[in-house]
Sequence to fold (255 residues):
Amino acid sequence: MKRTGGLKEENQERLSESSEMYLQIIWRLTEKGGEVSVTDIAKALCHTLSTVSERVVRLTEAGFLHHEWRERVSMTPRGRRRACRTIRKRRLLETFLYRMAGYGIHELHEEACRLEHIISDRLADALDRMLDFPQRDPHGHSIPGRDGAIREDALEPLSGAIEDRTVCIVRLRSADPEVLEYAARIGLLPGRSFTVAEKAPLQGPLTLVDGDRRIAISYEIASIVDIHAGQSVCPDEIARGRQSCMPSIRQVAGP
Fold:
């Protein structure tokens, strides 16, 4: 399904790669709460407070952030649009690498991170069309529209599901390659449905059933897997994403 958007590209000065990374991090930190402290930004980036404070001032003067001395940081509409432009490129790149280039789900982050600062909006639009306007990347994260709009779904962690409930996996909230590789190996991927057969007490393991398969996962793994709240059947776009996201070198190389 094609996303709405189509705003003309803003006449914005070209930002450095580091500035784009700052905006991405601040976007993620403020996605739920709206504001974040300079200290939290410094921790997320592993930078010193003085370095982060200086960059925040520069991004505020450029109109991307709201920030007063000793106050918390929030994003302006312009800043959110700019952050979403880069995030859109990354998630489209990850989808391309997974569907078309045979990359594993655990191999996407580093490659896409290098490319997201290089490709143009025109190329991102071309990828979007070529991939048939995907709604989510292979990890299950929503892909922003060209206008910066991003869908929000009611999700909850798999660790909170009760026994005998059938769940649809929507998103994996981890960038750890080992965790993602493990999830792929046991089939714990967006678009899959499982029934919670057993749930051990005191944050013990969960046993999931998929037909004749039974898999046991730790509470920690279940905590980074998001499912649809109150929904047992995967929505069409997630089910289609699962079918189309199976990587195949044959699709690229030919017979």
In short: Residues 85 and 148 are 7 Å apart (CA to CA). Residues 1-11, 243-255 have pLDDT under 50 and may be disordered. The chain has two domains: 1-152, 155-244. The longest helix spans residues 77-100.
